[in-house]
Amino acid sequence: MGLMDKVVAGAVLPLVPKFVAKRFAGRYVPGEKLEDALGVVRRLNSLGMSATLDVLGEFSSSLNEAMSASEEYKEVLEAIADEKLDCNISLKPTHMGLKVSRDKCYELIKDMCEKARQTSNFVRIDMEDSSTTQDTLDLYARLRKEYDNVGTVVQAYLRRTLEDVRVLLASDTNLRVCKGVYVEPRKIAYKDMAIINDNFMAIVELMLLNGGYTGIATHDERLVWRSLDLIRKLNPSQKKYEFQMLWGVENELRDIILETGHKLRIYIPYGENWYAYSMRRLKENPALAGHVFKAAFRR
């Protein structure tokens, strides 16, 4: 990637009109409506892949906003059940009102777990920036005592994560392991990518050795290779792990993983908040950001 692409991604891209950005957002977000996302789920299921639906949104500023998001997720669960799709849901605690009321956030997510249990489904509690880490883990630990159909996410770039996983493994747990994308201070997050990758693998190995359900969430072929090598050595039950990727990212690697015979789940975000999500994805892919910028000037 060139220096100019990086400059575009960091400083110029936010100035690109939405109507231009939307032409490229479709690579990462199938649409604003549930039916748009369900169409993708159907296609992925037909190809042998599982899916997760994520209603885009975060940092609800009121309880009414959080409750509205909760109701939308219930509609998602009902639609999945009606069509008998191989798909679960992922939600952000701040979308459920974490920054407004911890107690109400817990109640909403508990209600979601109950709805998911009634429809034979599963709820993934996403991990956000470090200001929410402990609250999210506390929510998860509390919910896990009553529900076995709930999991959360751990981020390999946080210095605390390996110890967090050791604590969570004291009881049955279900974790999605990712690198982490939020900008955090060096005091709490590793900055060296080699260390982050090694920590990612240490977490995956700890999970597989101790029987926790492990979602190996990465688009990094080096980590995919190391994970496959570890799976060959440890020979865990195929019911105890899966690979996970974002829709529209590294489709060729996605197909390679699927051809190896391992379970693969694709995360599909959708909703009216597509713009903010797409800007994050484009900033992570400066080369593509450069194309968006050039397209704006061609009009």
For the sheet with most strands, the description reads:
8 strands, parallel, barrel
Global structural class:
alpha/beta
Spell the H/E element sequence: HHHEHEHEHEHEHEHEHEHH
General form: globular
Mean pLDDT: 89
- Residue stretches low in confidence (pLDDT < 50, at least 5 long) are 287-299
**Strand line-up across the major sheet:** 1-2-3-4-5-6-7-8
Number of beta-strand segments: 8
Task: Tell me the number of helical segments per DSSP (H or I, 4 or more residues long).
Answer: 12
How far apart lie the N and C ends?
24 Å
Q: Hey, roughly how much beta strand do the residues contain?
A: 5-15%
Q: Kindly identify the CATH topology.
A: TIM Barrel
Please identify the top-level CATH class. Answer: Alpha Beta
| CATH architecture level-2 label | Alpha-Beta Barrel
Q: Short description, anyone?
A:
This protein has 299 residues and is α/β, with parallel strands linked by helices.
What keyword list fits this structure?
299 residues, alpha/beta, TIM Barrel, 8-stranded parallel barrel, 12 helices, 52% helix, disordered C terminus
